[in-house]
């Protein structure tokens, strides 16, 4: 339950991403800058925290052990997650992107066979290859139906092409984020705290953000002060608060793919928080009746996914066991 509550709190701060990205898009800001500026701001913010906790040296040691893997999985987990999210802001309101983003719950479940789970038995601690949690995945299909309803309603207002581009971008992000996060958890194996891991991944993905900033400079010029300020807020609320809280929640259930899926499911609350934020901050209209039905299905699917993910597991396949 503690991990679930932390996950919901992280969803609140993550929602600022969708609201502020929508605001920057409305003001004509380039998505290249919206994406890269967040991570530029995150480095000094996180560096202050890690230095205060006197844990920078341990992070540097871990980075030097496998710099190639750090760069690869950090670029996937941060770069191929956030750049598509910013790109999608040009094709729909923040609440719609937040709702579609919940596909990541299904994406995360499908990635389970790429990882190992640790279980305690009478024979000691054993490592087994992760299996797709079909009970949770079945509930996740309700989320998928909700996303379809929302996008169908959106397609009635904009072109089908724009809806497809928006969905494709978020689909890429939905696989990249859990893949990069889980690979980094496996690589560091609890040797780093969430602050260290987020800072390390931000540093390791820096070449990607420098490339995006260069493209943004060539295509759109320097960002406006408004975009710089709003990107700084995204870096603080979403990049630091939300990411650290989410990583802390996933660390609490590391090694249990079903509970990990439940924590990832808490991010469905981003839809509600983003919708409320856009209405209050941007004076955006409320979603249509059809979109509201879709949002309700997304939230219902999240609740059911969390419930079945916490049901007792029914054993595992012996041929996949490996004593550690």
From TrEMBL:
Keywords: Membrane, Transmembrane, Transmembrane helix. The keyword tRNA-binding does not apply. The keyword Zinc does not apply. The chain crosses the membrane at residues 31-52, 72-91, 97-116, 136-152, 158-177, 198-217, 229-249, 261-282, 288-308. InterPro entries: EmrE. Pfam families: EmrE (PF13536). This is Multidrug resistance efflux transporter family protein. It comes from Cytobacillus kochii.
